[in-house]
Amino acid sequence: MPLNIPNIREQFPILESVIYGKPLAYFDNAATMHKPRRVVNKVTEVYEKLNSNIHRGVHYLSNQATTAYEEARQKVQLFINATHSHEVIFTSGATGAINLLANSFGESYMKPGDEIIISTMEHHSNIVPWQMMCKRRKAVLKVIPINKNGELILEEFDKLLSPKTKLVAVSYVSNALGTINPIAELTQKAHANGSLIMVDAAQAVQHIKVDVQALDLDFMVFSGHKIYGPTGTGVLYGKEKLLNEMEPWQGGGEMIKTVTFEETTYNELPFKFEAGTPNIAGCIGLGEAIDFVSELGLENIQSYEDELLDYATKEFLKIPGMRIIGTADNKASVISFLVNNIHPFDMGTMLDKMGLAVRTGHHCAQPIMDFFGIPGTLRASFAVYNTKDEIDRLVQGISKVTQMFG
Amino acid sequence: MTIKEIQNEIVEEFGAFSEWMDKYAYLIELGNDLEPFDNQYRVEQNVLDGCQSKVWLHAWMDDGKVYYMGDSDAIIVKGIVALMIRALSGQTPQDIIDSDLSFINEIGLKEHLSPTRSNGLVAMIKQMRLFAIAFRAQQV
User: Fold this and answer.
1) What does pTM read for this prediction?
2) Nearest Cβ partner of A360 from B21, B25, B52?
3) A20, A124, A341, A349: best mutation site toward chain B, by most B Cβ within 10 Å?
4) Domains of chain A by range and CATH?
5) Which of B21, B24, B53 is opposite residue A343, by nearest beta carbon?
6) Which domains does chain B have, with CATH numbers?
7) Measured between alpha carbons, how far is A168 from A193 in angstroms, rounded to an integer?
8) ipTM of this complex
9) Eight-state DSSP code of residue A273
10) What is the pLDDT of residue A187?
């Protein structure tokens, strides 16, 4: 079903911004997406009408807030097709979720000499927490290499799998290249090897249907703010059995059953992993964002964004000197590029003056930049509210800057 | 010329540009015209690493004056480096330490020098002053 884009755009007040006298065209959606009015209103409504701390209160407002918060969890459960709502742990974001997992998983399952496999195309958030864990647990970090198109080399992955591989932690979609990884295949191989898999879906859930049961994922994380939701929200999904086995990471309120100075028994899932007062309003806002996405239909969003990606790729390649970094067969909504020898900072600064918001730099994925031998790229990433007209403006802007730099 | 006089001169030059495009075209020109950086000083200890772009800075003292040599991988940043060198190179350590560098605001480039902008420029200005402080200490 074709989407009514003008109608969608009207729901995003920020898209009316004027930047340096030019209408804003926002292409930094892989960093964070804008929020539709209904999400902003929902968060405001929580503070104005049901603000109260959740779970422990006997009073009316606390019950209302608890119900809304747990409803949001159920929305996430349905969205990712988890078996149980208590397999959905709310976190501060994908980074928070990976840190939680790295700590709890490491503490519970990793022994000295055990191995974990990540890939060259990971965001720093899916590298550093594992490095830190490996250091603590004296474990070994292994890395799947990529080819020049920015795709995982699967034969190399096969070679890296060993009896010591406890976990494979890979992104679904690369934030810097847009590559969609063959998660079903990776999961199958990991499981055949007796290893578990965690998928960083921070760049996936807003573009592609992620069904944790169909894919048989053991763990999956994503961020709320990259799917039209509030900042400071995110999700760790884990299979019930694994979450039950794992030690909690942070201690505090909410996550306990009984506390004495001698011993503490932990609460049940999901509360065991949600120490302290969570981002109540934010998580309820995330539930609203998921409704927004679900009502539009993820498959409709995906086909519209694919159309934008194809159009932009075609138009970009008409610019002399254009080099697209990341040319995988299967890509989502991201174009990383360089033009001639123009430094990304220079190009980005000039585009900004034209109201064109792109990201520049290494995109928190320095190993990818090292692989391609470049300091960074410019990145245009699309959301459902972007248009071909905006892409035309971007292409004109890039051409103009290219001429300026001769 | 004093630092103040050079700053006024730069402000006057930029006053001629009403369009942002012209201002940046001029910065690009300044960047391209900056005296080449002597490669023997292109070493790790002279790099001011921003997240977005790199700046190289080298300084030396001659006859009581501080001289700077700089470079950047981004041309716009290099243009601003050129302006900083023009304002401060050849001045006494004390004058450099006392300078207010208000011209950056006046020519509308403040956005590139806020501490949240990770282009190496803030670190460069700090380093230029630190060189001056170090050279002043040597004089006493």
Assistant:
1) 0.94
2) B52
3) A349
4) 5-30+297-404 (3.90.1150.10), 40-295 (3.40.640.10)
5) B53
6) 3-139 (3.90.1010.10)
7) 11
8) 0.89
9) G
10) 98
